[in-house]
Design brief:
The chain has 156 residues and is α+β, with helices and mostly antiparallel strands. Helices cover 40% and strands 21% of the residues. It contains two helices and five strands. The strands form two sheets. A three-stranded antiparallel beta sheet has the order 1-2-5, covered by helices on one side. The longest helix has 45 residues, at 15-59.
Length: 156
């Protein structure tokens, strides 16, 4: 028997294995984790728009005035998140902001009725390095606010 120590042809990991590990394991995780914050921000924006516009509607004295105030509030909230007034669409469509104001008695604010606000916002997809943004989708949010049962009414 020889007293020489056996040698191996393997000195450790190689650069291609390291790059493959980063490319296939670490990068997809980083991309997904980095995408979560914008998703959450847009979903939260939709919730705030729905809640605040519904509250504006139930506090208004007149439906038309309330709807104007509610829509301008929605535009203001969206602009604070980087959207322009031109990003709003008249009907739900991919990539557009959309709002619908209705309720149990649309056109009139009546004690005990409900105002329903539906909002859709675009959620950015995952940004893939070298490819760009992939898989944008729409997020829908709805909020119902009840007009106070004991609300004061104007006496002529």
């Amino acid at each position: 028997m020889s007293s020489e120590m056996a040698t191996s042809d393997h000195d450790g990991f190689t650069t291609p294995e390291w790059m493959l590990g980063i490319g296939l394991i670490i990068m997809p995780v980083v991309v997904i984790v980095a995408s979560i914050a914008p998703w959450y921000q847009r979903a939260n924006m939709a919730t705030v728009i729905a809640q605040e516009t519904a509250r504006t509607m139930v506090l208004a004295d007149d439906w038309a005035i309330g709807e104007d105030e509610a829509r301008s509030l929605a535009i203001e909230i969206a602009s604070n998140h980087g959207f322009a007034a031109t990003d709003w669409c008249g009907s739900p469509a991919p990539g557009c902001l959309w709002i619908s104001i209705g309720g149990t008695s649309p056109g009139a604010i009546v004690r005990g009725s409900e105002v329903v606000v539906q909002v859709e916002v675009p959620i950015p997809g995952v940004v893939v390095p070298g490819v760009g943004q992939v898989a944008e989708f729409q997020w829908a949010q709805s909020h119902t606010e009840r007009v106070d049962d004991y609300r004061s009414i104007e006496v002529p």
